[in-house]
Amino acid sequence: MIDLYCERLQPSLWDEPINAISNIAFFIAAWVTWRLADNLNVQFYSVKLLIYLMIGIGIGSSLFHTYATGWALLMDVIPIMMFQLFYLWIYIRRVMKLKPIIPVILMLVLLISSLLTLPLKVFNGSLSYVPALVYLLGLGIYNFQTKKQKKFMFLAGVVTFLIALFFRTLDQAICPVFPIGTHFLWHIFNGVMLYLVTGCLLFNLKVNQSNLLRNKA
After folding, report:
1. Which of 61, 92, 137, 216 has the greatest number of beta carbons closer than 10 A?
2. Is the dihedral of CA 28, 34, 37, 40 positive or negative?
3. H-only helix segments in the chain
4. Rounded Cα gap, residues 133 and 128, in angstroms
5. Where are the domains of the chain?
6. Cα atoms in the 13 Å half-sphere on the side-chain side of 83
7. How many Cβ atoms sit within 10 Å of the Cβ of residue 20?
8. SS3 (DSSP) at 92
9. For position 213, what pLDDT does the model report?
10. Is the torsion defined by CA of 145, 149, 152, 154 positive or negative?
11. 168 or 211, which is more confident?
12. pLDDT attached to residue 217
């Protein structure tokens, strides 16, 4: 049994009910994002992949908060890392329109730094998400300064991720006074964050798509 959160006291399958149920936030985020992509008529395969990865995050996290084993932990971590890497690639290539070598280098740095910090227990294990936060903040600043679509939407995503990290870090420290912990709030705010940053990406892809069609006309 892997016991990382306040709510888990024993190895039974349903010992983290709130943490498990709160993963519905990721499925809702995926559904709302899919609806937005459909309304904007943004049908890139890369967008569909991000939505599938949101669903994967929800499934992986649900498995970990029920089974709490090593293989379930991998199912939890892998979709999260894949989403970060693919989002970075899509944003840099399709919104910033930089050469492929740039996102490849940045993806390698993100992957290596995240893996190196993953085993560390600093800030209740939240240190491994600091590289993602730095990248997200960088993209948010770029999105704002270059006056891309929905610049405040992206910054709201950054703030939401900070709030999510706060609750993830707080979980173990608050066990004596709040036995269920705060990890479920990490799930909820993360779901909101995924929608905000992916929604911002969709609006920018829509503009690029419209410009491309206009140029072909």
Report:
1. 61
2. negative
3. 17-21, 24-40, 45-67, 70-90, 101-117, 130-145, 151-170, 183-216
4. 10
5. 17-209
6. 29
7. 20
8. helix
9. 46
10. negative
11. 168
12. 43
Predicted TM-score (pTM) of this structure: 0.95
- The pair of structure tokens assigned to 201 is 């990406």
Whose tokens are 């993830």? That residue is 168
Q: Which amino acid is at 162?
A: L
Tokens of 132: 């993602």
Apex CA 88: angle with CA 86 and CA 92, to 5°? Answer: 120
pLDDT value for 116: 96
pLDDT in tens, 141-169: 999 999 999 999 999 999 999 999 999 99
Q: What is the CATH number of domain 17-209?
A: 1.20.1070
Q: What's the rounded Cα separation, in Å, for the pair 94 and 108?
A: 19
How far apart CA 174 and CA 182 sit, in angstroms, is: 8
The owner of tokens 């709040």 is 178
Buried b / exposed e over 159-193, threshold 16 CB at 10 Å, is ebbebbbebbbbbbeebeeeebbbbbbbbbbbbbb
Q: C-alpha angle with apex 84: 45 to 115, nearest 5 degrees? A: 140
Q: How many CA atoms lie within 13 A of 207 on its CB side?
A: 12
Please count the other Cβ atoms lying within 10 Å of the Cβ belonging to residue 143.
Answer: 26
d(CA 106, CA 89) in angstroms, rounded, equals: 9
Average pLDDT over residues 22-43: 97
